Amino acid sequence: MSELAMWRDGATRRTIVDFVRSVTSGPDAVPAEERIAVFDNDGTLWTEKPMQTQLHYIIEQWTALAKEHPELAEQQPFKAVVEGDLSWLGAAVDKHYAGDDSDLKVLIGALLRTMTGLSVEDYAASVTEFYRTAQHLTLHRPYRDVIYQPMVELLDYLAENGFTCYIVSGGDRDFMRPITQEYYGIPFERVIGTAIGLEYADGDVRYGTTLDFFDDGPEKPVRIWTRIGRRPLIAAGNSNGDIEMLSFVQGGPHGLSLLVHHDDDTGRGDTPYDKGAEKALATSEESGFTVVSVKDDWSAVFPPESA
Amino acid sequence: MSELAMWRDGATRRTIVDFVRSVTSGPDAVPAEERIAVFDNDGTLWTEKPMQTQLHYIIEQWTALAKEHPELAEQQPFKAVVEGDLSWLGAAVDKHYAGDDSDLKVLIGALLRTMTGLSVEDYAASVTEFYRTAQHLTLHRPYRDVIYQPMVELLDYLAENGFTCYIVSGGDRDFMRPITQEYYGIPFERVIGTAIGLEYADGDVRYGTTLDFFDDGPEKPVRIWTRIGRRPLIAAGNSNGDIEMLSFVQGGPHGLSLLVHHDDDTGRGDTPYDKGAEKALATSEESGFTVVSVKDDWSAVFPPESA
């Protein structure tokens, strides 16, 4: 049985191991069907810097679209993409985490433009092809090699202890599904994420014209209930958008909430940052979150590069 | 291994057995993770006559509410409940299946009135208590004893053949979850149904003020994709509201869609009816649906009464 070998001995590792032991044996043991764990994806299970993987994919889609429709190059976000000024995109996401969704709405409108009418199977094929060939923009390795190995080890450790693990991400659900089984051991039906409205017609399910919901902040516990029908025992996140999910779990009769802190300045490939996590970090102590220090608690970050 | 003992030998039973054999072995075999089956609930897994179980529960809630607020007795649906004229409720559902949602909207508004602000855990407790004591209105036995035994046998048979079975119902998701494991062997996370919008605040998930979606007709394939991310191999339904789900499944590379036809006039406890299923039945042949005759294909309907 995996024993969290990539987690350095210390308070964090002991907290995890003790909690798992307490809910799997002894007086506080809970039945296996109640052992639910939920994990954010971007910044928790893999790197989200310099931008979320989904943005990389979307930029490729928008570049192609702007080539077909040159008039689009006059407006955001196509302008940013065509001019190679990707800072506009990152700033839109940062503004969201600071409470201003105006540019995020522009982003979502452009996202819908590329997806409306597409069948879910065709989108899955397009995403699968992207993952097959895309390289991380600064690390220049496949996306399967920028996952956080200690977190994958934690997923395995929990599964071995009878937990059922779900992803609960602000990222598009159907952008994750093609790779979650292979990268994380998590099947389609346990991927919860942002959802574009779907429509059924003539035998196919296709993306519609509106966003169904953005799975972030208070939406995360809502979607956890919708999909799972239970309050999880364990949650892991890394940003302000995870606070409500972490609090929901921490507030249960048995709850362990992990907040991954990107404090690693040792050059192991990932960037240190607090941006977008300031509030989660500042309130972690009073909230009872267990802060995971990438620098101190993990003995490795990324896997050795695959072939 | 269960061999569908309560299904009489004939074309329907052979179609099911042959299909299951073809997707579990031989050249058309599909991996276990793709063996998904979806089942409507009311009228497919248990009786929906004289009214859906959920209506019985809601009537009890509305009766209590109208006692607290006598002015409600002047308006529908409280008027119908207080006056004991339940035909208005049945007619509202019938009108929906005939394409007129006006009274259904009144029903949903009243439903929301009893649920807004309630925590999901409190509602689950209330529903659990209802099932513990309620008796079916005409058969006078607990609801666990008005499930269709041949269909439960089919669920078991599919599970033994590596299928993962889901409920996909027009009924309220959280009204089903408390009993699906015990009655059908289907856990919370595999119950898909109509959803009242949820809100998260102060550590709890509560019902909000709007309906999120009514899981019927074209919404069924949409919600199947949302939750499962695959096109199922097998679907079972019994009404016009199941046509799209059955067509979605029948349209896949391997698909078997079952339409339960309530044609049993032999007095085995359940009522024969075509109402609400006229279109599904009329188009079943061209759609390729396999019609399950309750009268001819099932050797039993309900289980022997439990203690």
From TrEMBL, chains A, B:
Work out whether the entry's keyword set contains Metal-binding: yes
Task: Kindly indicate whether the keyword Hydrolase belongs to this entry.
Answer: yes
Q: Which InterPro entries match?
A: HAD-like_SerB (IPR050582), HAD-like_sf (IPR036412), HAD_sf (IPR023214)
Q: A Pfam family name for this chain? A: HAD
What are the record keywords, sorted? Hydrolase, Magnesium, Metal-binding
**Taxonomy, superkingdom:** Bacteria
Q: Name one GO molecular function term.
A: metal ion binding
Gene3D superfamilies linked: HAD superfamily/HAD-like (3.40.50.1000)
Family (UniProt): Belongs to the HAD-like hydrolase superfamily. SerB family.
The protein's name: Haloacid dehalogenase-like hydrolase
Name its species: Humibacter ginsenosidimutans
